[in-house]
Automatic annotation (TrEMBL):
Cofactor: FMN
InterPro entries to which the protein is assigned, alphabetical: Aldolase_TIM, OxRdtase_FMN_N, YqjM-like
Keyword list, A-Z: Flavoprotein, FMN, NADP, Oxidoreductase
PANTHER family per record: NADPH DEHYDROGENASE C23G7.10C-RELATED
Highest taxon in the source lineage: Bacteria
Name of the protein described by the UniProt record: Putative NADPH dehydrogenase
Listed CDD domains: OYE_YqiM_FMN
Listed GO MF terms: FMN binding; NADP binding; NADPH dehydrogenase activity
Pfam family, one: Oxidored_FMN
Residue span, NADH:flavin oxidoreductase/NADH oxidase N-terminal domain: 12-345
């Protein structure tokens, strides 16, 4: 096993303190839906899937999106945290992570008009009611796509109920032993739908102006922050832009970031897209990072995480050195190689953080 380099530790392997939590490095497992739960309950698949990352030296692990209500699931197979029965199965996972020195967070979500759809490998579009689907809600009555369900426009009572659902889910996350909670307001799901003029045509206090369109998210964040321990970090994931004319954009994201910091948000997880089929995304290496860099520059007291086609340790380190972000979230690279962090450490001359049974698997050259 390699010894620590005599040179300066790479930023990728420099600890980061967030409130009372200290991440051992800057690599984060991004939330990724697995579509493998039943009735929202975590099972053996989730234990093994997330457990492998608890043994792999990441700075922070995130579960997939957990729905705050049954109607908030993307698919019938989504993970959930709307019922107390879902606490214990998740608690087994957090216990395992903590027993092996890992930190773990959960993403809380509501799919809105993109709910009641098939898992990607089971079909496309709406799951019919007779096959386990359900009625969906959204800012207004427009569907995401012709194959998707038509939502009922939310009343103010619906908005209050969903806000309370997020708060209750945050309380359950604490009981389940999570270190971090993230509010999902990206990728075209409910909270993002309210943010964007392309999905929100309301004329009440939740639609129209920027101040009205961000109101629902701010109310949710306020409720979650009040329910989640003050010393534990709160993340929010945002789509910085809809990649479509007339939609949500990076300038509104910066304005919202300032408001979220005031509400006690510690970290912004900056992604993009997912709201409209009209999006035209320019994809490339670290293509979303310029949005994260803009937020970090304009709101310097916020910690910023970037994600999206960051494949190599060298690329990740370069983004950190350039001041574009504070944390690097990885999705597909870690699906393909759960030991990405070990290999990155060896390549950068850093001693990998490895649990004792795995020490024989680390070599100077991998």
């Amino acid at each position: 096993m390699t010894q620590p380099s005599a040179t300066v530790t790479p930023l990728l392997f420099t600890p980061l303190k967030i409130d009372s939590l200290t991440l051992p490095n800057r690599v984060v497992l991004s939330p990724m839906c697995m579509y493998s739960a039943q009735n929202g309950l975590a099972n053996e698949f989730h234990q093994v899937h997330l457990g492998q990352y608890a043994l792999s030296g990441l700075g922070l692990i995130f579960t997939e999106a957990a729905a705050v209500s049954p109607e908030g699931r993307i698919s019938p197979e989504d993970l959930g945290l709307w019922d107390d029965s879902q606490i214990l199965p998740l608690g087994r996972i957090t216990d395992f992570a903590h027993a092996h020195g890992a930190l773990i967070g959960i993403q809380l979500a509501h799919a809105g008009r993109k709910a009641s759809t098939y898992a990607p490998w089971r079909g496309r579009g709406m799951v019919p009611i007779e096959q386990g689907g359900w009625s969906v809600i959204g800012p207004d009555g427009r569907a995401f796509h012709e194959l998707y369900p038509v939502p009922s426009a939310m009343t103010t009572d619906d908005i209050a109920r969903v806000t309370a659902d997020f708060a209750s889910a945050a309380r359950r996350a604490e009981m389940a032993g999570f270190d971090v909670v993230e509010v999902h307001a990206a990728h075209g799901y409910l909270l993002h739908q309210f943010l964007s003029p392309l999905a929100n045509s309301r004329t009440d206090k939740y639609g129209g102006s920027f101040e009205n369109r961000v109101r629902f998210l701010l109310e949710v964040v306020r409720a979650v922050r009040a329910s989640w321990p003050s010393h534990k970090p709160l993340f929010v994931r945002l789509s910085a832009t809809d990649w479509a004319p007339g939609g949500w954009d990076e300038f509104q994201t910066v304005d919202l970031a300032r408001l979220l910091r005031y509400e006690g948000v510690d970290v912004l997880d900056i992604s993009s897209g997912g709201l409209t089929t009209e999006q035209r995304i320019t994809v490339g290496s670290a293509y979303q990072t310029p949005f994260a860099a803009m937020v970090r520059r304009e709101v310097p007291d916020l910690i910023v995480m970037t994600v999206g086609q960051i494949e190599t340790p060298e690329r990740a380190e370069g983004l950190l050195l350039n001041g574009d972000a504070d944390l690097i979230a990885l999705g597909r690279p870690l699906l393909g190689d759960p030991h990405w962090v070990w290999k990155a450490a060896v390549a950068m001359g850093v001693k990998p953080q490895v649990v004792p049974p795995y020490e024989r698997g680390t070599r100077t050259t991998l």
